[in-house]
Amino acid sequence: MPKMIKLLAGAAALFSATVAIASENAGKNTAKSDPPFLARDVAIFDTPWALAFLNGTEMLVTEKGGLVWLVDSQGHKQPVEGVPEVVHDGQLGLLDIAPAPDFAQSGLVYLSYVAPTSKGGSLALARAALTRTDGKAALENLKVIWRDGAMPGGGQPGGVIAFAPDGRHLFLTVGDRMRPRRAQDLSTPQGSIVKLTLDGAPAKGNPFENNVEARPEIWSYGHRNPYGLAFAPNGALWAHEMGPRGGDELNLIKAGSNYGWPLVSNGDQYSGAPIPRHSTRPDLAAPSVYWTPVIAPAGLVFYTQARFSGWRGSALIGGLAGMSLSRITFEDNGAAHEAERWDMEARIRDVAVDSSGYVWVIEDDSEGRLRRLEPK
Ligand SMILES: [Ca+2]
Question: Ligand 1 is a single-atom ion; what residues have CB below 5 A from it?
Answer without folding.
Answer: 259-260
